[in-house]
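User: Hi! Is it possible to get a structure for several chains at once, not just one? Here's what I have:
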Amino acid sequence: MTISAPASGAAQGMTVVARTQGQMVRRRFFRHRAALVGMLAFGGVVLLAFTSIGIGPIPGWWDKSYLTTGSLVNQGRPTLSVVPQFLGGEGIRFGEHPFGQDNIGIDYFALTMRGAQQSITVAFIVAIVATTVGTLAGAFAGYFRKLTESVIMRLTDVMITIPILIIAAIVGRTFGDSGIVILAVCIGLVTWPTLGRLVRGEFLSLREKEFVEAARAVGSSAGRIIFRHVLPNTIGVIIVSATLAVANAVLLESALSFLGVGVQPPDVSLGQLIDTYRSAMTTRPWLFWWPGVFIIAIALSINFIGDGLRDAFDPRQTRVRA
Amino acid sequence: MRNSPNEILHVEDLTVEFPTDDGVVHAVRGVSYTLHEGEVLGIVGESGSGKSVTSLAVMGLLPRGARVRGKIVYRGEDVLKLSARRRRALRGGKIGMIFQDPMTALNPVHTIGDQLAEAVLAHGLVPYKQALARAKEMLDLVGIPQAEARLRSYPHEFSGGMRQRAMIAMAVINSPDVIIADEPTTALDVTVQAQILEKLLEVKDAVNAAIVLITHDLGVVAGTAHRVLVMYAGKPVEIGDTDTVFYRPRMPYTAGLLGSMPSLETSGGRLRPIGGAPPSLINLPSGCPFSPRCPLADDTCTAEEPGLAEAGEGGHLAACHHWREVAAAPDPTALFRTESEAV
Ligand SMILES: Nc1ncnc2c1ncn2[C@@H]1O[C@H](COP(=O)(O)OP(=O)(O)O)[C@@H](O)[C@H]1O
Ligand code: SF4
Ligand SMILES: [Mg+2]
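Assistant: Yes, the chains can be modeled jointly so their relative placement is included. Here is the combined structure:
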C-alpha cells in the first residue's frame, strides 16, 4: 500500500526525487566518476598540505620548514623521482628536497605546501562568507520583493558590472597587510552577488508554491518561512554554488597574489610563489611549475566535485545513472 | 440574529479586486455570511466563482496588490483592522485552513512530524519534543496508523488520502474555532473522498470547530453542510439551509447545478449540464451575470442586477428577479432541458 521503501518507490519515477532527497543525492554523487576522482584528488591535496608541514605549532611529518634556509643541494633541483629504475629512470624516491629549493635554499616542497594551505584557507573563507551573504541577500530579496529587493538587486548590479578582479585588487591593496583572514573576508564580501542572484531566483519561484501559502496559513512568521520552509528547498543550488565559489576563490586569490596585492611575504600562497618565480621560468622552471600544478589540481578537482553535486541535485534526473 | 452569541465569524459585504494588466478582476463582489459555533457552511459554485479568493481574504493570505473591502469579523473584532502580528496569531491558531492539493501544500523536504510541529512552534515557545508529541496526537486523531513512525515519513511516502489527513491534522493542531476547507477532497481519489470528508467532520467535532466547506461539487455539501451559500461570478446568489436549497432552489443557477449532479433523484436520473461558461470577471455583462446562460432571462434581467432577497423561510435568500417562477416550476432543474429533450 503506502508503506513503500525507497527501493520499491524507484519504479514510480518522479516521486522518487522528493523522496529521500539526501539519499538520492548521495547515490547520484557517488556514481559520478569525475566527482569522485575530484574528491579524492582534493582530499589528497588537503591532506598533503596540512599534514606535511603541520599547522601552526603542530608539527607535520616533513622535517623542513618553509621559513628556514639550507645549503643548496644540486643547484636547488628537485630530487623527486617517479620513474622506476627498470624503465631507465632513477627509481621512485622523495630525496632531500623533492620539489627543489628556492634561491636562498628554502625547501620548495615546504614552501609549496604552505602556499597550498594558505590558498585553500583563503578559498574556504571567501566561499563561506560569499555563500552566507549571498544566501541571505538572495533570500530576503526574493521573499520580500519591493524595496528590499530593489536595494539588494541594484547593489548586485553595480558589483557585478565592476570586474571582480578590480574590486578584489583594491580590497587586496587595502587589506593585504592585515593577514589572510581579513583579506579573505573582504574578498567574500565583494563576491557574493553571483550566488545572491541565484538564490533570489530560487526564492522567486518557490515563494509562489502552495506549501509556502500553507506555511503562512499555519501562522508561520516571515523569518520561519524563509529559513525553515523555503531555504531547505534551495540547498542544492547553494551547495553547488558554494563549491564552485571555492574553486573560483582559489583562482582569484592566485590572480591577486600574482598581481602582488594578495598574501604578502614572508607568508606565501600559490599565486604569490608563481608571481615570484615567473622570471625563473627558463632557468629553474620547477619553481614556477610546482605551485602551478597545485593550483590547477585544486581548482580542477573542486570543479569536478561541483559538477557532480550539480548533477546529483538536478531534480530532472530521477534515475541514478549507471 | 446578526449578533447571536454563538456567532464566530461574520463576513460582510466582502469585495476583492485584483488590478491586472488586462484590467481589474472583480473576483469577489459583496459576499456576506455568518458562521456559528460548530456549524458547517458549504460554499459552492463553479470554478472561478471566487470561493478560494473569499477564503484567502478571510485568512489574510491574498497576494499583495489585492484590494479588499468590507468586514471580516472574528468574535467581534474586524480582522482587517488588526495588526499584522495579531492577524498571524489568528492564522493557524484560531482559524485553520485545509488546501485542495495536499501534495503541493506539504513541504517536500520536511518530515510530516516536522511540519506538524512547525505549526505548533509558529505559535509559541514550546519545546520541540512537546510539539512533536502534539503532532503524534493529531495523527492519531485523523486516523493515521502507526502515528509514531509516520512522524518521520516524508509527504511523498504518504498516499493522497493520508496526505490530506495530515493536512487536516496540521489545520487543527492548535485547536482552531474555524476550519476553512477549500475543496478538501477534489484532488483525491474518488474512493477515499467520502472517508476524508467523514474524518474531517469527526475531527471538527473533536476540536469543537465550525467549518467553511468550499467545493464545486454539490454532492460534497449534501450530507455535510447545515447551510449552503451558492456563488456565481464573485457574488452570493443563493443562501439557505442545505435541505431548503437542495429541494426548493429559488435561483436558476442553483437549479442548474442540481440538475448537473449525477446522484440526485429530482433530476429524473438525467444529467443536465448548464450550457455556456461563466462571464469574464474583468468585463461583467450588464444586469444579472447569469443572464447569458439563464433560460428565464429577459430584459429585466439584462437591465438590472438582482440583489439577494428573501425567497423563503429560515433566512432563505436568492438573487433572482424571477425566483417566483423558479419556485412555481414543479422541477426547477428541468429548466435546463437539453435540446433533445426540448423537442
Ligand atoms: N492573484 C490573482 N490575480 C488576478 N486574478 C485572480 C487572482 N487570484 C484569483 N483570481 C481570479 O479570481 C477569480 C476567482 O478565483 P477563485 O476564488 O480561485 O475561484 P474558485 O471559486 O474556483 O476558487 C478567478 O477568475 C481568478 O482568475
Ligand atoms: S435574474 Fe434573470 S438572468 Fe438572472 S438568474 Fe434570475 S432569471 Fe436568470
Ligand atoms: Mg478554488
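The two ends of chain B are 48 Å apart (CA to CA). The mean pLDDT of chain B is 88.

User: Great, thank you!
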